[in-house]
């Protein structure tokens, strides 16, 4: 189905039926955060834009692709208590809080080929230091994302192990990846440019986690931090040569780079 208004999109997202929803135009959603139920694929057509957020809560099998989120009032995408979620080829431009936050025992989430620009709080993983129910969950993969001058949380991780961060391009950040509260994060094959603290073990008031960094490129960036080890990555994958990541990610990340 194709929707061309924010209300029509909100109604489709809350349907109990499995749906492929094609989004056209610049849509104003009815709420700051709009619920997404299970078995939904949301595809932007052309330059589809949303001005508020999507709340994937207690859901399974959700795909969100090729949308531009601009000026949102809460989070652009909030994933909580959900599994099997893919967030791919979106652009996040200048909102209030998180671009993509994953928390509250969510699991098996992939965040790929997105661009975050004109923004500060990019991607939080883990609700807060006291939410210990996240242990054993929050297994999330981040790859081929373009953190384009965004300042922090790429991601900021609590509890999740393993969390896999590979082949992303970071430019102009205060910090890149932070592992805290006993998390286990593998950071490999990324390209860090003008990043003050590329990887951090512990952050702010949160205690340290484990972080393994390998085969990354650092250009005009600080010294990476690492500690401990990380659980095995549970899938086969190929890491691109990090020297080519800046070119490949800037050519391919964000909305409008795929054919829907």
- Give the name of the CATH superfamily: Single-stranded right-handed beta-helix, Pectin lyase-like
Low-confidence regions: none
Q: Tally the helices: what do you get?
A: 2
Percent range of helical residues: under 10%
Mean pLDDT: 97
Oligomer state of the chains in this structure? single chain
Beta-strand residue fraction: 35-45%
> Which structural class do you get from the secondary structure elements?
mainly beta
Give the tally of structural domains. Answer: 1
Q: How does the major sheet shape up?
A: 17 strands, parallel
Q: So what's the overall shape?
A: globular
Computed CA radius of gyration, to the nearest angstrom:
17 Å
Based on the structure given, which CATH architecture is correct?
3 Solenoid
CATH third-tier fold name:
Pectate Lyase C-like
* Run of helices and strands: EHEEEEEEEEEEEEEEEEEEEEEEEEH
Keywords: Carbohydrate metabolism, Lyase, Polysaccharide degradation, Secreted
Protein name: Pectate lyase
GO cellular component, one term: extracellular region
Family: Belongs to the polysaccharide lyase 1 family.
